[in-house]
Write a structure and sequence with these properties.
The structure holds two protein chains of two kinds. By secondary structure, chain A is an all-beta fold. Helices cover 0% and strands 50% of the residues of chain A. Chain A has strands at residues 5-7, 10-13, 19-24, 31-37, 43-50, 53-57, 65-68, 75-79, 88-95, 104-105, 109-113. Chain B has strands at 4-7, 10-14, 19-25, 32-38, 45-51, 56-59, 62-67, 72-77, 86-90, 93-94, 97-98, 104-109. Classes of the chains: A mainly beta, B mainly beta. The interface between A and B is medium-sized, with 23 and 25 residues.
Chain lengths: 114, 110
């Protein structure tokens, strides 16, 4: 069964550095999402992406964040200048039906900012 | 802003008994109501969902009921088993705007 994949599984970076988290959605899915989960807390929506555009974003997704689909398979989340509070698990998800359909989550990337 | 509340935050039940978790939401335009299960260190996985034109849905030991008037939906797990121990999140949606509840930690006691 196809799955969403994410790389790396764990990223350690210094405060102020840029990071790029990578996701490969399921191949026939058209809707893509990023979420984050601070340790022990709830899952928080960051952004949704469809047809090469952001369709929704949360208050967390400020100017430090950006998303891109650089080719036909990857979907990336960039954090320009990381802060300590960006430390979290970042999950990518994809969906064939978008707003009213199931989302399939990737295994997550644990980001540690020191 | 929109608000999603889950109750209880922690629930312990004897193996074989039933568990019920309730999710209350504020956005009356929400139209899709999923429940996710997350085991420690793993990704959230959809276990059951319901759309706004349906009141109840069942899949083996798991069921979801929706009350759109009262703006809440509930997860029911019957004949609980040890592998049901996890954190459960509701995540009501309107279009692509998604808000997760804070989660309910379910412990199944032997």
């Amino acid at each position: 069964e196809p799955e969403v994949t994410q790389t790396p599984s764990h990223q350690v970076t210094q405060m102020g550095q840029e990071v790029i988290l990578r996701c490969v959605p399921i191949s026939n899915h058209l809707y893509f999402y990023w979420y984050r989960q601070i340790l022990g807390q709830k899952v928080e929506f960051l952004v949704s992406f469809y047809n090469n555009e952001i369709s929704e974003k949360s208050e967390i997704f400020d100017d430090q964040f950006s998303v891109e689909r650089p080719d036909g398979s990857n979907f990336t989340l960039k954090i320009r200048s990381t802060k300590l509070e960006d430390s979290a698990m970042y999950f990518c998800a994809s969906s064939p039906q978008g707003p009213r359909g199931e989302q399939y989550f990737g295994p997550g990337t644990r980001l540690t900012v020191t | 802003g929109e608000n999603v509340e889950q109750h209880p935050s922690t629930l312990s039940v004897q193996e074989g008994d039933s568990a019920v978790i309730k999710c209350t939401y504020s956005d009356s335009a929400s139209n899709y109501f999923p429940w996710y299960k997350q085991e420690l260190g793993k990704r959230p996985q959809l276990i059951i969902d319901i759309r706004s034109n349906v009141g109840e849905k069942k899949d083996q030991r798991i069921a979801v009921t929706l009350n759109k008037t009262a703006k809440h939906f509930s997860l029911h797990i019957t004949e609980t088993q040890p592998e049901d121990s996890a954190v459960y999140f509701c995540a009501p949606r309107r279009d692509d705007k998604i808000i997760f509840g804070k989660g309910t930690r379910l412990h199944i006691l032997p």
